[in-house]
Amino acid sequence: MEAAIITIMALLFFAFVALGVYATVKVAKAAKRGVDRTLDQARRTVEDTTLRAKSFGQAGAASELARLRLSLRTSMRATQEALQAGVGEDASLKESLDLFHRLSAHGLELDEDLKRMEREPDKAYVAGQLSDLARRTEQITGSADALRRAARDRALKFAEDDLSSLSAQIDVEAGALRHWDGPETAPESGAAEAWGSPAGTAGPQVGDEPPAITARDPRRTAYPWEKSARPETTT
Prior knowledge:
There is one protein chain. 72% of the residues lie in helices and 0% in strands. By secondary structure, it is mainly alpha-helical. Helix 2 (61-87) runs antiparallel to helix 3 (93-119). The protein is flat. Mean pLDDT is 76; it is low at 212-216.
């Protein structure tokens, strides 16, 4: 009996240790991903700022290369964010996102070519390659912009259709609310009947359950245009 208890305690101990190790590893990986995302974002910000400074602060081929890289990065990043944000609500954008991933491969290849041109010492050779690099950049950014704008137009169209349907339902409900003529009541009805109690009764009877008070649902979304209720003051 004692051996069985010791075995169970040992198993529980190792289970808790394993659970603690697993939780520690998960937390460490999540923290590492957060740090990596922060570093990547900081690196992109620095690169964008450097490219923007080169495009304005330098002249000739160096300025044009910086402008092309900045245009490529800005267009691809905006399209990626738009598609990834919309695919969760519109499953049809998954195919568009797959196409964008294929386009991204060409974009990365072009970005590497632009980087090599920045390090190329032969300025005459770089100047001769600028027209082809500009054409490729315009082709890739044009495709990315087309995907982004189409996804945006699709989302706006759905929003407009939903708003039109909602407005029509509200118009119907508003029309129904304006028909305030209720059922005819006998003119001999007394005050008790007018307030919903049968004649000869005064309010709720013994044994009647009090009306339920509907509390405000705390989970209900609070809209920015709502005014918070003033607390009642006591004197």
